[in-house]
Amino acid sequence: MKKQQWKKLKFQKIEPHQLTDRLLLINLYLTQALTLIIGIVWILFQKRNPLELLSLPQGWQFVMYGLGLAALMLVVDFLLSAVMPEDSMDDGGINRMLFRKRPIWHIIIIAAVVSVCEELLFRGAIQHSIGPYWTSIIFALIHFRYLNHWLPTGWVFVSSYGLGYIYEQSGTLWAPILCHFLIDLISGLAIRFRRET
Fold it and tell me: Which Pfam families match (predicted)?
């Protein structure tokens, strides 16, 4: 009886316009929870302590790395958006759906959750194993909604490499976490307050 139920189960691709707000948030938080779990397990297999990776550093140098790279990336992103056609930076409308009507406090929470979970996995675990170049390739590939367009895919790769660079230079995971948080926060707020044309 149970075997027949599994045979009836069908998987289908869902287009962005088919997503409800609730389904989008469930997907976001489930993927981030999975990212966090994989990151922690990977770090434990490396015989390292995830809590030590997340301990706050002594000085404030990491803030300069995080702020500096975030500012540079936001300026480049703004210039690319101004010069390139809008459809060349298209992510299928996911970011717009996620942030357009979201309260500011929720945008802050999303940016914080995503930055901590993704940086723990990618910079804290994967980069430790295979270095920043291959980590950035994997980072670009998991942002599959951009893969239809070469420009955002390349930009995600370059951004990831920059995050890996400031992690190595600062010696703390908080530099890329801060940078990632600021980029997601400012991008989310820009989408939230952008006037409709």
Answer: Rce1-like
